[in-house]
């Protein structure tokens, strides 16, 4: 059951579809990933998307970040930290900088909207 502004009611049955994001630590832009994930999930809530909102979070994600997502009505699923098979590559750090840029820029909000969201 969906409440006001797309919030999931306690005890509600899972929906057929879900928007999911992954959060893990170890990049130079961990906080930016967190902010982008919160903004995206908040946008989906405000759009009343008929889908669950889920974040798959590694165990090393700060508990206060996971709790903030839960407080926003997002289902947070904690998973064991996995060793990254690519970390021994010469271009490892560069790869994450590129990924961070692509993921952060794929969310169509301005920094003003993001700052308003977290007030």
What are the key terms here?
119 residues, alpha/beta, Rossmann fold, 3-stranded parallel beta sheet, 4 helices, 3 strands, 39% helix, 15% strand, disordered N terminus, disordered C terminus
- Kindly identify the CATH topology: Rossmann fold
Strand segment count: 3
The CATH C-level name is Alpha Beta
Q: What CATH architecture do you see?
A: 3-Layer(aba) Sandwich
Q: In which range does the helix fraction lie?
A: 25-40%
Q: Major sheet: size, sense and barrel closure?
A: 3 strands, parallel
User: In whole angstroms, how far apart are the ends?
Assistant: 27 Å
Mean pLDDT: 74
- What oligomerization state is this entry in? single chain
In order across it, which strands form the biggest sheet?
1-2-3
Q: Identify low-pLDDT runs.
A: 1-7, 94-119
Q: What's the Cα radius of gyration?
A: 15 Å
What's the helix-strand series? EHEHEHH
Residue share in β-strands? 15-25%
Class derived from helix and strand content: alpha/beta
Basic shape: elongated
**Count of spatially separate domains:** 1
Tally of individual helices: 4
